[in-house]
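Students often ask why inverse folding is considered easier than folding. One informal answer: many sequences map to the same fold, so there is more than one right answer. In these notes we will look at a single instance of the problem. The structure comes first.
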């Protein structure tokens, strides 16, 4: 397993605060939407208070929509419960410098009740619960997320003022693998690569993608919790570096009518000694453990899609012939399938291709692990691989709309057994809130279609 050491130790942070090289610490936790939320504290206050005692925040952070509106119906908190505090509990293994904000460091936190009880519905805790279930089998996952985004030369403020119309994409044609095309945005990509390294991520490469302004930066695999921690730091940094350059990026799954942005997740398993358990040799033969684990991923694909695709917009990405999968099934190095088997020997792994760039990585990876544990515990048999174009084959489809995915997750006995009713009910309600907001909105499409003609 390639697990990098902590990019900044607590002792180093203490010394750099004392020497005033670092004067600000970002206290951060991930919300339901996969965003880092929290507060900035002075270095002195961090040493005096936060280091040993954590800090407080309003518990609406895990009961709000994407606009941070308070919404009714969550068991965790409400107006009737008074919107009390939760605790940010620092995980010092996540300490890192934040190069795009000189003099700043960050620590990522677990969220807990004020009595110290972990909040089961917080995304990081949802993932940790599934990691504990897998650990009971003597296994630990490693992996990486491949996260695409679209870069615009229009600033966030100008984009908002212009109602997000007529944005100037950073490229004017398909620059997939184009060194010339990515060279035109190297000012941005160079900062992104080097400053992510400075934040403790292991950057591998950067490349162009199909849509206008679409890019992808790849990072080295590591243990899954660190992969998710790094993922959300990367999203925050990508936005802030763009903002500092008068640009903007979006991680919407489908920002326009062209190709959407994906978040493919690669995963494999090691035993307690760090030995890969997916291969049986140096080739592509799958072990029984891998076959059962992948069988669980395939078997739960329909029920768990909501955790891979959590927004209305997520489902606009799924279209035949788009490299966004629609067929429930797996294949050998086949990008038309939801699950793709790739690599050989110690690098043999599966790739889950359903998530878009808007996925919450903790919830998506928790879904994969829960699915794999389901396969292991029930000794599921892996169905036959899909060969050829999966888009044209007579096989079941993933949910094609959010309401279908939420309903499947809500009614899934496997989901409730794997995650518990508290987690399922919490996120089902979040999906219902999103759908109600969309159903109440009058869209541009409706106005253009009906203003004069109806």
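Output (designed amino acids):
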């Amino acid at each position: 397993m390639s697990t990098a050491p902590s990019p900044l130790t607590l002792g180093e942070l203490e010394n750099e605060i004392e020497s005033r090289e670092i004067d600000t610490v970002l206290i951060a936790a991930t919300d339901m939407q996969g965003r880092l939320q929290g507060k900035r504290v002075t270095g002195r206050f961090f040493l005096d208070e936060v280091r040993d005692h954590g800090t407080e925040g309003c518990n609406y952070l895990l009961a709000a929509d994407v606009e941070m509106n308070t919404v009714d119906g969550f068991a965790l908190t409400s107006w009737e419960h008074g919107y009390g505090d939760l605790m940010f509990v620092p995980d010092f293994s996540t300490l890192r410098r934040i190069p795009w904000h000189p003099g700043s460091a960050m620590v990522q936190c677990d969220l807990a009740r004020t009595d110290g009880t972990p909040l089961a519905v917080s995304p990081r805790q949802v993932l940790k619960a599934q990691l504990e279930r897998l650990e009971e089998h003597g296994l630990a996952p490693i992996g990486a997320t491949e996260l695409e985004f679209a870069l615009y030369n229009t600033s966030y403020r100008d984009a908002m003022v212009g109602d997000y119309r007529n944005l100037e994409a950073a490229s004017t044609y398909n620059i997939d693998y184009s060194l010339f095309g990515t060279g035109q945005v190297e000012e941005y990509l160079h900062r992104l690569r080097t400053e992510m390294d400075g934040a403790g991520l292991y950057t591998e490469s950067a490349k162009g993608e199909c849509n206008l302004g679409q890019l992808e930066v790849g990072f080295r695999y590591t243990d899954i919790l660190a992969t998710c921690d790094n993922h959300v730091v990367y999203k925050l940094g990508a936005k802030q570096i763009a903002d500092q350059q008068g640009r903007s990026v979006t991680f919407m799954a489908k920002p326009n009518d062209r190709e959407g942005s994906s978040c493919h997740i690669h995963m494999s398993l090691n035993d307690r000694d760090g030995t890969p358990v997916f291969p049986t040799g140096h080739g592509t033969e799958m072990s029984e453990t891998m076959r059962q684990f992948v069988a669980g991923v395939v078997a739960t694909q329909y029920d768990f899609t909501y955790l891979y695709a959590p927004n209305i917009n997520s489902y606009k990405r799924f279209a035949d012939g788009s490299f966004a999968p629609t067929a429930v099934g797996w294949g050998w190095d086949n990008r038309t399938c939801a699950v793709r088997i790739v690599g050989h020997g110690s690098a043999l792994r599966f790739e889950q291709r359903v998530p878009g760039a808007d996925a919450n990585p903790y919830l998506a990876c928790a879904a994969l692990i829960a699915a794999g544990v389901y396969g292991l515990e029930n000794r599921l048999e892996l169905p036959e691989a899909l060969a050829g174009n999966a888009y044209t084959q007579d096989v079941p489809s993933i949910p094609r709309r959010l309401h279908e995915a939420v309903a499947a997750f809500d009614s899934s006995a496997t989901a409730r057994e794997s995650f518990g009713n508290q987690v399922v009910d919490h996120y089902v309600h979040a999906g219902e809130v999103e759908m109600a907001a969309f159903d109440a909105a009058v869209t541009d499409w409706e106005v253009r279609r009906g203003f004069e003609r109806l």
